Amino acid sequence: MRDRPGHGVTLSYYDFGQTPFFALQADQRVSYCLYVPKDYEEDGDKTYGLAVLMHGTGRTATAYRDGFMDFAEANDCILLAPLFPAGLISPGELSNYKRLAFHDMRFDLLLLAMVDEVKAKYRVRADRFLMFGFSGGGHFVHRFLYVHPERLLGVSIGAPGSVTLLNWDYDWWVGLRDFEARFGRPVDLAAMRRVAVQMVIGGDDTETWEIVTKPTDPGWMDGADLAGGNRQERMRSLRDSFERHGIAVRHDIVPGIGHEGTRVLEPVKDFFAHTLAAAP
């Protein structure tokens, strides 16, 4: 227990600061860790914002959590870093969460269950939250935006290898033709326009070895090359797709950086801070 007033009554030492990973009680196959600012008092009345930081294929959840700790302290924000392990259901499978649904698992709904669990434990404004993801995390967060725009205050989409365009001529994940059948609701463009959107990528992020570019690549489907041949082109295509539908986008290109998620965090923190400051 922390020898400090207000800490350790119901919550323990491990519920503050950099927490361990907690199994999600709704589905213990997945877990999450937190960062809780130093001034959080269990018996206080101050409320905090919430930022969700989605890992990429490498599952480096704590790297993003730790990289945003200064932002959390400066902006009174609790950080939630989910962990969706590799190899769920199918041994060796790496991309289970990126398209939101995999076998019996809906990763978007599991994320919302994590948010509910955090809201029950802390004084956090969780009805609308911030979300960032880079690479595989960028896959997840822009698709989460399509399904749950009403839950997002702002979303930062970092360098996804494949993107889902606002295009109703192709099926999911390339487009949205079968979106309502898959997710039980149509895309709400009006709600998406109320979300602050950033797209961020390193200026030297041009390698293609990890992304689907041709029919012989695993994961290919019709239209997989529709958005372009590398991450730069695909991010521009996603930006243009959003803007054609009246969704404003802040597009940050970080010079001298390749595909390195932890090196693009400063413009994301700036975007998050401005989004929080502008929130009603």
Structure description:
With 280 residues, the chain is an alpha/beta fold. It is 28% helix and 19% strand. The chain has eight helices and eleven strands. It has helices spanning 61-67, 69-75, 107-121, 136-147, 179-183, 189-193, 231-244, 265-278, and strands spanning 17-18, 22-23, 31-36, 49-54, 77-83, 101-102, 105-106, 129-134, 152-158, 196-202, 250-254. The radius of gyration is 18 Å and the shape is globular. The model has no long low-confidence stretch (mean pLDDT 95).
Please specify the SSE layout and strand pairing.
Elements: E1 17-18, E2 22-23, E3 31-36, E4 49-54, H1 61-67, H2 69-75, E5 77-83, E6 101-102, E7 105-106, H3 107-121, E8 129-134, H4 136-147, E9 152-158, H5 179-183, H6 189-193, E10 196-202, H7 231-244, E11 250-254, H8 265-278
Task: Explain briefly what this protein structure is.
The protein is of the alpha/beta class. It contains eight helices and eleven strands.
Uncertain segments are none
Number of helices: 8
Give the assembly state of these chains: single chain
Shape: globular
Q: Helix/strand/pairing class, anyone?
A: alpha/beta
The largest pleated sheet is described as:
9 strands, mixed
Radius of gyration: 18 Å
The number of distinct β-strands equals 11
String of helices and strands: EEEEHHEEEHEHEHHEHEH
Helicity level, as a percent range? Answer: 25-40%
Tell me the span between the first and last alpha carbons: 37 Å
Strand content: 15-25%
Mean pLDDT score: 95
